[in-house]
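Assemble and predict.
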Amino acid sequence: MTKEQFTTKILALEKSMYHTAIAVLKNDDDCADAMQNAIMLAYKNLPSLKKPEFFNTWLTRILLNECYKIIRSRRNTVEYEDYLEPAQDAGSGSLESSELFGEIMQLGESYRVPIVLHYIEGYSVKETAAMLGATPAAVKQRLLRARKILKERFGERL
Amino acid sequence: MKKNMSDKFPEVSAKVHRAVLDTLDALPSLNPITENEKENKAMFKNRKNRYAAAVIGAAVLAAGSITGYAALKYLTPSQAALELDDNKLAKAFEGENAILINETQKYDDYTISLLGVASGADISDYISPDAALGDKTMYAVLTMEKTDGAPMPDTSSDEYGSYTFFASPYIQGLAPKDFNIYTLGTGYSEFVKDGVQYRLLEFDDISIFADRTIYIGVSEGMSYDISAYIFDDTTGEISKNPDYSGINALFTLPIDKSCADEKAAQECIDKINAEMHPSESDKHSSQPEMTDEENELDAFMSQITGENIGEYLERVESTVQTLTPDKDNYLEYSWELESGAGGNERLLLDWIDIAPGETKLLGWSSSGGTIEGLCVPTLTDNGDGTYTFAAYIYGQD
């Protein structure tokens, strides 16, 4: 794969990567760091990708790892939940443009990440499980609970 | 039916987009041929052989035979829009700004059809909330089906997406590797009905380029394939590569030349060029300089491979563990260093191209961005169905 092909793929996936990163990190500065690190790592490790058709899921897994690294690095200074709560500046204010996305961002991290990957980015339960390092059954369970919470908030509108 | 909802959610912020562009720009230009590239070339060679065999057998399908028939077999573009619950677009496909095309191009394995296009402002129920008022959008309905008549996998099945199609508009005179659905488009929706996969492609209204030839192409994979088409630098024309034996469908859109708008077209070109090739001043304003330590770290890591890692770094024995993949081909393990680095991992072996006896680096990280803070997890294929995980750090001595 050439640099141009890699660049094309990354640009095509940029929005999906952003949704995934913001679901974990909830602020733009950290999203930028995680996405930059993930892109560089993916580029370095391209030879290890056995099947090109797994590129999207493989890249998302790398991105999630980078997001969790950032979360881990913050644990020494700020409590995780404290860190997540006030972050309303994500997406340069555009988050408010979507009520549903705003509600998803209020869910706990274990719910909002699979719901973004599966319902928004369209990955299958199997792919989502592979990215999160969880079993498909566990992902289904989390999606079910997340839907239930959202349904309670949105009622019939969901 | 599965719709790509991603487009309905927040756009990438300018800050993050800038960071992504800077990172892509900073990647080494001279990327050595990767293992995947080698694999792709091997696959290409195989396809050529298969093509040769097909020609000997008097089959002409691989060359992409063209028929004008399609109308009776498929949903109309309007019906396809209705399948995607887009009533407004369904009406647009019946209006005066729609063009019914119904052209089919057949290949060995897949048959591709372009059913029609429609364009206009506010002609879909799913206009992006970020779209500017009056923005015109173009929609195209394509179908992909198996030439032998077998049904395409439903979008709800695990097999859906296992074979990917890259469908994109192209414009005469503009390099298709740069001007394609990724830079001109906003997304697509898909569904499968009666074994036929329908794709509704959405992109900027490119009828402003009507004084040039406007194409829609469908090839394999997830990005523009330079081997599938030929871009003539002199005439700007795009054509199918006759030596390519995969899918390289190419349709020409019969758009009225009076729709051309030279000024708007140039603005569109300038905008895309600016996004793809930011000016030097833009790049330097937001791209942090690499520190000496980071440069040193990069240089240090560039010499390390799975084979020689023991010469440079020290294995942390407490992290060493022998692993057996589970029934789904996952390896599960956890590890932790005194520094706090580590993790609970569930690694899908399908993602790792590793041979018996080989050791692969599973990435690396560095606390403080220094060689002294390095941590490199590795995996070794023991050749007996088991794998060994071990983390390496920079030695103290």
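The mean pLDDT of chain B is 77.
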